[in-house]
Design brief:
It comes from Castor canadensis (American beaver). One of its GO terms (cellular component) is SCF ubiquitin ligase complex. This protein is elongated. It has helices spanning 8-11, 44-59, 92-99, 101-105, 112-147, 164-171, 174-187, 201-208, 213-219, 224-229, 233-241, 261-273; strands spanning 277-283, 292-295, 298-303, 306-311, 325-327, 334-340, 343-348, 352-357, 363-367, 373-379, 382-387, 391-396, 407-410, 415-420, 426-431, 440-444, 450-454, 464-471, 474-479, 483-488, 498-501, 508-513, 518-523, 528-533, 539-544, 556-559, 563-567, 571-576. Helices cover 23% and strands 27% of the residues. The strands form 7 sheets. Strands 1-28-27-26 form a 4-stranded antiparallel β-sheet, with no helix packed on it. A 4-stranded antiparallel β-sheet has the order 2-3-4-5, with no helix packed on it. Strands 6-7-8-9 form a 4-stranded antiparallel β-sheet, with no helix packed on it.
C-alpha cells in the first residue's frame, strides 16, 4: 500500500470531492474508505496499477468478507458498499483514517505526486469495494446452497469461506445453521436437473407409478431426494399387490401396515425366486403330530397333550428357549387348536374340548365326542368341532354356557377338517369321502341344516384333510386326492374354479395362503413344502425338509412376510426369506 508523503495533509486543499472509480464488479467504491489525499490527477502508472489490481480482484472469488479497518477494502460485513461518511474503525487503519480525515472532507487539489498517490489509494478502495461486492454475491449463492442442503462438493453443509458471514447474519447461531442444513438435506429437491423433478409431487407420483421395480430402484440411486421420494408407499402399492406374500389381500387390504411397502417388495422377490435360509427351531425326542398358531411375536405349538407358547426373538428366525406358558388339560394328544378372543380352544384325542385363557391359568375342559376330536374352529363366540365319531357339533364360548351343545350334525362320515364362514352364518366340513356323497358340505350355523355340497367328481377315499375360507364366498381345500382346489360359491358349487396338482402324487396334509397370490402346501413324504403362484398351474419351488430315513409329513404350516414355519414329526423348521 502506498503511503502519503510527509506533509501531505498540510498540502491538501478544500474542493469538490472527486468522482469515485468503479469496483471490480462495476459498482462504485465507498467514498468513506478512500485513501488520504485523493487528488484528481490520474497518471499512466497509476492507471496500470489500477488495472492490475482489478484483474487480481476478479480472479479472487469467494473472499467475501471486507476488511473495513485496513486501507478501505469495503465497509460492510456482507461486502456491500459503505455509508457516505466513514465510521471510525478499530485496528491499525484507524489512526491513518483519523489523520486522513480532512482529506476525506475536501477534494484533492495538490501536486501531481499527490494526485498519483490519491489515485493509488482510490484504486485500492475501489478494488476493495469490488471484492466486497463479489463477496456479497458469493455469500448469497452460498446461502442458497445451504438452504437447499447442497455444497459445491455435493455434500450438504454450512457455507464456507468469508461469504459464510452473510449466511450467519441471516440464520443466527451455529446450532440453527446446522438444523437448517439437516432439514434442507431431508426435504429439499435438487436445484439442478431436469424440469421433471420440479413438478408437484402429486404429478410425480402419478408418473412414477407406471415404473416397474427395476426402474424405481435405479431412480432411487440418482440423488438423496429421489431416494426419499421413491420410498413412498403409494409408489409401491401397485407392485406389492402383484407380488407374492407382500401383505396385501386380493381386495387390496394392507395387513402389515407397520412395515414399509418397499421393504416387503424386496423380500417378496426372495419368495418368488425361492431364496431362503433353512433352520430348525425346536426338536422332539419322539414322533409327534404337532399343530401350531402364530399371534404377534408369539408361537403356540402342541406337543403331546400340552400346548406351549414361545416368544420369537427380534430376528423372527429363532425362539427364546424358555416357553412363556404351558397349557394342559387333555389326557391324550392335542389334535388341533385355534386362538380366539384371548382364548385357546383345543381338541384332543380323548374326545374332549379344552378352553384356556391365554393370560391366566383358567382352563375348562368338557366331553364333546365319543371318539377323538380331529378338528375345531372358533369365531364370533361360537365353537364348531368335528370328530371321528361321524358327527359335527356347535358349542357356545360364553363362560356361563360352556359345554352346552347347540346342534349335533350327523355327517355319516369321519370329519377331518372344519371351518366357520367369515359371515358367521355357515360352516364347512371336510370328511373322509367313504360314502356316496361329496366330502365338502356346507351347513347352516344357526339351524344345523345342510345348505349345499361342493363338487361331484371326487373319487372314493378323496378325503379333505384341510379346508379354509379365504372370503365369505371363496374357500380352499386339499387332501388325499393330491389336489388343491379353489371354490367360488358365486359361480358354481358343482365344480371348482381352479385346481393345482401335487407333482409327486403325494397326499396334501395342510395349506396356507396370503389371501392374494401365494399358496403354500405341505406334502406327506419327505416333509416337502411347496410354493405356488395361483396365477400359474405349475409349482414355483419345493423345499424337502427331511431325508429318506426320517421321512415325515408336514402336519402344519404358518408363515409371515419374512418367514415360513413347518411342523414335522421330529422338528419345527423355519425358512428365512428375509436374510437368505
Amino acid at each position: 500500500m502506498v503511503s502519503p508523503p510527509p506533509g501531505a495533509v498540510a498540502r491538501l486543499r478544500v474542493g469538490p470531492a472527486p468522482r469515485p472509480l468503479m469496483g471490480s464488479q462495476g459498482r462504485p467504491g465507498p467514498p468513506g474508505n478512500r485513501g488520504p489525499g485523493e487528488g484528481e490527477g490520474e497518471g499512466g502508472e497509476a492507471r496500470k496499477l489500477q488495472d492490475a489490481r482489478v484483474v487480481r480482484g476478479k480472479r479472487r472469488k469467494g473472499k467475501g468478507k471486507a476488511d473495513a479497518g485496513q486501507g478501505g477494502r469495503g465497509s460492510g460485513a456482507e461486502g456491500k458498499p459503505g455509508p457516505q461518511r466513514a465510521k471510525p474503525a478499530a485496528g491499525p487503519g484507524a489512526e491513518e483514517g483519523a489523520r486522513a480525515g480532512p482529506g476525506r472532507e475536501g477534494g484533492g487539489g495538490g501536486s501531481a505526486e499527490d494526485g498519483a498517490t490519491s489515485t493509488v489509494k482510490r484504486d485500492e478502495g475501489s478494488v476493495g469495494a469490488g471484492r466486497a461486492a463479489q463477496g456479497s454475491d458469493d455469500g448469497q449463492e452460498e446461502e442458497r446452497r445451504v438452504r437447499t442442503g447442497r455444497r459445491d462438493d455435493g455434500r450438504p453443509g454450512r457455507a464456507q469461506g468469508r461469504g459464510a458471514q452473510a449466511w450467519g447474519g441471516l440464520a443466527g447461531t451455529g446450532a440453527a445453521m446446522a438444523a437448517a442444513a439437516a432439514e434442507g438435506e431431508a426435504a429439499a429437491r435438487p436445484a439442478a436437473g431436469p424440469a421433471l423433478w420440479r413438478l408437484p409431487e402429486e404429478l410425480l407420483l402419478l408418473i412414477c407409478s407406471y415404473l416397474d421395480v427395476r426402474a424405481l430402484g435405479r431412480l432411487a440411486q440418482v440423488c438423496r431426494w429421489l431416494r426419499r421420494f421413491t420410498s413412498c408407499d403409494l409408489l409401491w402399492r401397485r407392485i406389492a399387490r402383484a407380488s407374492l406374500n407382500s401383505g396385501f389381500t386380493r381386495l387390496g387390504t394392507d395387513l402389515m401396515t407397520s412395515i414399509p411397502v418397499k421393504e416387503r417388495v424386496k423380500v417378496s422377490q426372495n419368495w418368488r425366486l425361492g431364496r431362503c435360509r433353512e433352520g430348525i427351531l425346536l426338536k422332539w425326542r419322539c414322533s409327534q403330530m404337532p399343530w401350531m398358531q402364530l399371534e404377534d411375536d408369539s408361537l403356540y405349538i402342541s406337543q403331546a397333550n400340552f400346548i406351549l407358547a414361545y416368544q420369537f426373538r427380534p430376528d423372527g428366525a429363532s425362539l427364546n428357549r424358555r416357553p412363556l406358558g404351558v397349557f394342559a388339560g387333555h389326557d391324550e394328544d392335542v389334535c388341533h387348536f385355534v386362538l380366539a378372543n384371548s382364548h385357546i380352544v383345543s381338541a384332543g384325542a380323548d374326545g374332549k374340548i379344552g378352553v384356556h385363557e391365554i393370560h391366566s391359568t383358567f382352563t375348562v375342559k368338557y366331553s364333546a365326542h365319543e371318539q377323538e376330536v380331529n378338528c375345531v374352529d372358533c369365531k364370533g363366540g361360537i365353537i364348531v368341532s368335528g370328530s371321528r365319531d361321524r358327527t359335527a357339533k356347535v358349542w357356545p364360548l360364553a363362560s356361563g354356557r360352556l359345554g352346552q351343545c347347540l346342534h349335533t350334525i350327523q355327517t355319516e362320515d369321519r370329519v377331518w377338517s372344519i371351518a366357520i364362514s367369515p359371515l358367521l352364518s355357515s360352516f364347512v366340513t371336510g370328511t373322509a369321502c367313504c360314502g356316496h356323497f361329496s366330502p365338502l358340505r356346507i351347513w347352516d350355523l344357526n339351524s344345523g341344516q345342510l345348505m349345499t355340497h361342493l363338487g361331484s367328481d371326487f373319487p372314493p377315499g378323496a378325503g379333505v384333510l384341510d379346508v379354509m375360507y379365504e372370503s365369505p364366498s371363496t374357500l380352499l381345500s386339499c387332501g388325499y386326492d393330491t389336489y388343491v382346489r379353489y371354490w367360488d360359491l358365486r359361480t358354481s358349487v358343482r365344480k371348482c374354479v381352479m385346481e393345482w396338482e401335487e407333482p409327486h402324487d403325494s397326499t396334501l396334509y395342510c395349506l396356507q395362503t396370503d389371501g392374494n397370490h401365494l399358496l403354500v402346501t405341505g406334502s406327506s413324504y419327505y416333509g416337502v413344502v411347496r410354493l405356488w403362484d395361483r396365477r400359474q398351474r405349475a409349482c414355483l419351488h419345493a423345499f424337502p425338509l427331511t431325508s429318506t430315513p426320517l421321512s415325515s409329513p408336514v402336519y402344519c404350516l404358518r408363515f409371515t412376510t419374512n418367514h415360513l414355519y413347518a411342523a414335522l414329526s421330529y422338528n419345527l423348521h423355519v425358512l428365512d426369506f428375509q436374510n437368505p
